Write the structure tokens for this entry.
Amino acid sequence: MVFSLEILRSRIKLDNSWRESRRIPFYSGYNKRRYYKTFYAQVKQTKLHRAVVLMGPRRIGKTVMMYQAIQNLLDEGINPNKILYFSLDTPIFTNVALDELLTYALTLNGTTIEGCYVFFDEIQYLKDWEIHLKSLVDRHRKTKFIASGSAAAALRMKSLESGAGRFTDFFLPPLTFSEYIDLNAFDSLIEKVEVDFYGVKKFYKANNIEELNRHFCDYINFGGFPEIALSKEKIPNPEQVIQKDITDKVIMKDLPGLFGIENTLELQQFFNVLSYRTGEIMSYKNVSTETKTDNKTLKRYIEYLESAFLIKVLHRVDVTAKRFKNITQFKVYLTNPSLFTGLFGSVKPEEERFPHLVETAIFAQYLHRDYNYLRYANWKRNGREGEVDLVQVSPNFQKAQWALEVKWSDSAKANKLKFFMKKNGIEKGILTSKTKFVNGSDLLIVPSSVYAYLVGKNALDKSA
């Protein structure tokens, strides 16, 4: 469908309503995420002539962060006519070239493109977006372009292929548990303590572990999405919000558009199976049988779901932290435990699936760090078998650097973890619990909620 020029201009004017008021009232009440300061520095950076490509899954704050940046620019005295915003998932803009949109907006504002800040939201809906954006960057050296998109892996791939030297990728992950605590002003529940663990003494302890665990449960069910987690007014039916705005749009709209998928129902059912088994060890054979999907399609669907940042595959090492030549099994984690809520409803701490979601939540905190060397260990050797949930291996994949076993219990045993530690010369391992905190000689036992807070907090402090 081709819309009239009058309709296009009306939509552009609506999207850029700050020309008179210099305010964006709807987004003024949102707290800024810890990533905002670094992102805004990239927006204002002019020494390197590059566009900023803001990547991340749906509903984790990319559009809000763009609007907050626009408000910052207005507050700093930037001419409002020089700030342009386009929401490219709007049907009116379908098949309209970026050049055309810019021309219409500049004409409306009565200005030239030099010195403008141009925001393209959800740019993946424009075919060959990377070619169009690179062309704009090359031709307009005194203009700053900022784009966002929800299919992180696909965007990064195209960014590297066509935007080398022209784009700066900025990845925004789901909300961490530490952000959830800090932004909701629950930080009085946490205090810093010194724990000598591999030379790192910065650690945290709960002042009220029962209350912290209640917030951890809320975070697991709803907290990965800032709009829900940080809303001052309780959102009715948050499960439906997650289902409709996350899984439905990604599975039914984003992925088919990016990869030309025809059988979206099959992909949705495949995603349901992987989501329900988040944190479990799976084999290609069993998943293929359960989902009635052949191996080739199975691997392709996993690639699609990873590209949309809905899941992350974790690969296996043996008891000596060595890789397997034949990959027959793997783990899949939801990148955001709250996705489980959207598909199957919220889960209570005493329910059977909750420990798997605890493990998923802890893994999700590592997505804010370099997770390329994370693995899980699983072995059957000399009559012994076992598993360790998370292992970090060295960059050359020759040595295990630390090992972590995730539990939602205060009576869990660490025999398999200690066996793995002995095999790999690891002096001290980590076992998470429900409420227990013990700094032993060979084992650090820490509540899962505290450990989740620690991992996210340390990652954000390093990136600040």
Notes: The chain has two domains: 5-171, 177-463. The CA atoms of residues 81 and 111 lie 7 Å apart. The first helix runs from residue 5 to 15.
